[in-house]
Specification:
Blueprint: H1 31-45, E1 48-53, E2 61-68, E3 71-78, E4 83-87, H2 106-109, E5 114-115, H3 118-121, H4 135-144, H5 149-153
Parallel strand pairs: 4-5
Antiparallel strand pairs: 1-2, 2-3, 3-4
């Protein structure tokens, strides 16, 4: 595995969530662990948990929402690696529509998730070492016009 320059984030197998017939199963991030972290985060925020949704292929992420005094924050959890990001609205895929981690994001870091900040998520793919990705994964990225690391990680290849 290699690190993308300026990202500090390795792009291991499964980063795109893209599978070809005959590929070995990808690693799996526990929905139970994610849900527990979301409830902890909501308590820290003085809010409550909205809906928690499990990832369904071709999406690469679970979602949940935390409702607090500032409104609703959508929490994205990569289905194959313990990466968490935040957004204002639920979408089927993202490119650069992310929020900075809220103060209560520490609940995820304390439970083994890596909280991804805006700098990482909006890193242009041209600045990321994607050599660990398969030819098919690189083709999908081009076809879908993904331009940033966050779009590669939080997507739905339909």
């Amino acid at each position: 595995m290699t690190e993308g320059p300026g990202t500090g984030l390795p792009l291991p197998r499964g980063a795109t969530g893209f599978l070809r017939p005959g590929d070995a199963p990808l690693p799996h991030t526990s929905l139970r662990a994610f849900r527990a972290a979301v409830y902890t985060a909501a308590r820290l925020a003085g809010g409550r948990v909205g809906e928690v949704r499990e990832q369904v292929y071709p999406s690469t992420f679970h979602t949940a929402s935390v409702l607090d005094g500032t409104g609703e924050t959508v929490v994205l959890c990569h289905a194959h690696h313990p990466w968490v990001a935040f957004a204002r609205e639920t979408r089927t895929w993202y490119d650069e529509e992310f929020l900075a981690p809220p103060p209560w994001a520490s609940a995820f870091a304390l439970t083994g998730f890596e909280v991804l900040g805006l700098d990482r998520l909006t890193t242009p793919l041209s600045a990321v070492d994607t050599s660990a990705l398969s030819r098919d994964e690189r083709r999908q990225v081009r076809v879908y016009g993904i331009t940033a690391l966050g779009g590669l990680l939080f997507n739905a290849w339909d």
